Amino acid sequence: MPTSLTIDPSAPRELDVALLIADLCGYTALTETHGALRASEVVLRFQGLVRQTLESGVSIVNTIGDDVLCAGADTAAVVRTALQLRDAIEREPEFPKIRTGLHRGHIVERAGQVFGAPINLTARLAAQAASGQILCTESIARSARDLGDIEARVLGKQQFKNVAYPVAVFEILRSTERRALPAIDPVCRMQVPIERAVATIVYGGTTHHFCSLDCARTFTSAPDIYAIRSAQPRPP
């Protein structure tokens, strides 16, 4: 059975691990709308959900703001952790979605920190992912396909900043999943179960659902801005 990744500041070592980086979508908007206190509560709950969904052999390596970096020697365990974390997040009421990147490679652990190009690429994948999406490289996709109920869908090659070569990108999905996804509040970017929306506004032919009356009022003060931001795809 794989052992958890532990940081030993006394001696540098090279590790071949699967990496997972997840962060909260719309965290800045959440902070601006609901304040730093509410945002801090969300981050702490997010970190708690990460700990609860870790598979055996997968550990949290670092947390910075609303970003979490996990690693494990067993690629399959890291993939299952990513799926379980996404599902746990989407069950949370009035909570932002996450975007996730997965990659495998050699990193260096030294003086209580981890270093290496694989970490940068994993972060780029997470930044590229849409809300609720799990993106990975081919090294992860090959192992994911062996899990039976998991699909690694080809998205094509993409060029990422500070990565010298185009990277083949895949999306991790459960092959049988059919999920009823919540709406996203266009102001604070939190998930809103449609049946629990405090307010609903139809604008420009699109129905928008809100977690609070404050968000609904903010939307009505500048609907063009929030409607456009809600509809924009995430840039590479």
Report what the structure shows.
- The protein has 236 residues and is α+β, with helices and mostly antiparallel strands.
- It has two domains: 13-174, Nucleotide cyclase, GGDEF domain (Alpha-Beta Plaits, 2-Layer Sandwich); 183-231, no CATH class.
- Helix content is 35%, strand content 32%.
- It has helices at residues 27-53, 75-91, 117-128, 138-145, 213-221, 223-231, and strands at 13-24, 58-64, 67-72, 98-110, 113-115, 134-136, 150-158, 167-174, 183-184, 191-192, 199-203, 206-210.
- The strands form three sheets. Strands 1, 2, 3, 4, 5, 6, 7 and 8 form an eight-stranded mixed sheet that branches. The protein has a two-stranded antiparallel sheet with strand order 9-10.
- α1 (27-53) crosses α2.
- It is globular and about 55 Å long.
- Mean pLDDT is 84; it is low at 232-236.
Give a brief outline of the structure.
With 236 residues, the protein is an alpha+beta fold.
Offer a few descriptive terms.
two-stranded antiparallel ribbon; disordered C terminus; 12 strands; globular; 32% strand; 8-stranded mixed beta sheet; 236 residues; Alpha-Beta Plaits; alpha+beta
Rg of Cα set: 19 Å
Q: What class would the helix/strand composition place it in?
A: alpha+beta
What is the makeup of the main sheet? 8 strands, mixed
Multimer state: single chain
Look at the structure and name the CATH superfamily of the largest domain.
Nucleotide cyclase, GGDEF domain
- The CATH topology of the largest domain: Alpha-Beta Plaits
CATH class of the largest domain: Alpha Beta
**What is the strand content?**
25-35%
Helix share bin:
25-40%
How many domains? The number is 2
Distance between the ends: 37 Å
Shape: globular
Low-confidence stretches: 232-236
The CATH architecture designation of the largest domain is 2-Layer Sandwich
Instruction: Please state the average pLDDT score.
Output: 84
Q: What's the number of helices?
A: 6
Write the element-wise H/E pattern from the N-terminal end onward: EHEEHEEHEHEEEEEEHH
How many runs of DSSP E, i.e. beta strands?
12
